[in-house]
Amino acid sequence: MTEATEKKVMLSGIQPSGALHLGNYLGAIRNWVERTDEFDNYYFLADLHTLTVRQVPADLRRHTLELLASYIACGLDPEKNTLFIQSHVPAHAELGWVLNCYTMFGELSRMTQFKDKSAKHADNINGGLFTYPCLMAADILLYQPDYVPVGEDQKQHVELTRNVAQRFNNLYGEVFKVPEPYIPKTGARVMSLNDPASKMSKSIPEGCVFLLDEPDDIRRKFKRAVTDSDTERCVRYDPEHKPGVSNLMSIYAACTGKSLADIEAEFDGQGYGAFKPAVGDAVIETLRPIREETRRILADKAYLEDVYRAGAEKAARVAGRTLRKVYKKVGLVAR
Ligand code: ATP
Ligand code: LTN
Fold it and tell me: Which of 15, 176, 241, 254 is 20 to 30 A from 42, alpha carbon to alpha carbon?
């Protein structure tokens, strides 16, 4: 195979800090699945990242395996995607340290996720929370990816990664590929069902639809979804004035493939009463096969073990190549 026909590389990760939700699926995983054949793919579970916030150890272990099972259930075939657990590939922590030394205090201070999380966990504003983007930059740069598919909230971290990579390359030559963020058109920012001003997040469970939720729970959550207090009560896309309905429309569009204009026409004259259950049903049908398959895979621990072992082996080979180059460039003595 010639260079020109080699596939481009795609890489991303999710923290196993809780159950996966619709925002993670529509904003991230689904886009990974759609691009499987087109790219050489690396998808990992960012378990080291979760330590920035206090975790219950047994829950973290369970969530990590659940997330791996969900990756596969969502359609990430382990034969076509390198699936692995971050802590199984020591190069992440190693390059993370080096990049700490090439990232500025001021840059890290500007990260909105740091500001949000330190407000939320005011009793535990630890160093890891602050330097977390350096570990994320290492996660990415080790694999020389072309694209990093993430939801809108992670764009700032990918931009920082680009800046750090460029800074390093300016000092030492072309060591890192400078990656592009890859943000989906629909689902990039799924908002909470009970507060359309904040993103859907596991920390607001009532406004959050989890991939393993039963249909009845999903139906109930959509029935109670906050819509807008405007008088016209029609289904129209207007994120500024009608954030609740617009969020539901985006979810419906992402689950059915319909355009926003089609949806406005479909519910013309019907108000919110017919619309909300229709969105609930569309989500139920989208998530049904994923829930069933996740449960099936989770029961097969030996299979999961095979997947994460093989994934770590391949990932370590690729990551090791970049790490050795970095160590050499900065002047560390080769072992
Ligand atoms: P938390 O619930 O604690 O905010 P999280 O659900 O955002 O965490 P992450 O591991 O931070 O989980 O995110 C995993 C991926 O899902 C990232 O690519 C992120 O951009 C995407 N994502 C997370 N929440 C949403 C959302 N509400 N809408 C769209 N994409 C999202
Ligand atoms: N920071 C991300 C998770 C994450 C990630 C990454 C995403 C860690 N390392 C590398 C893309 C590439 C988050 O909190 N969602």
Answer: 254
Instruction: For residues 236 and 90, state if they share a domain.
Output: no
Closest by CA to 249, choosing from 231, 232, 228, 229, is 228
Q: Do both 115 and 61 map to the same domain?
A: yes
Determine what percent of the chain falls in helix, strand and coil, rounding each to the nearest 5: 60, 10, 35
* One domain, residues 267 and 305: no
Residue 126 CA to residue 129 CA, distance in Å, equals 6
pTM (2 d.p.): 0.91
**Chain segment 99-114, per-residue pLDDT in tens:** 999 999 999 999 999 9
Does some domain include residue 335?
no
If pLDDT is split at 50, 70 and 90, which confidence band does 186 have? low
Q: Which are the contacts of 106, defined by CB distance < 8 A and separation ≥ 6?
A: none
* CB of 23 shorter than 6 A to ligand 1: yes
Residues with a catalytic annotation lie at 117, 199, 202
Same structural domain for residues 108 and 144?
yes
For 248, the domain range is 205-294
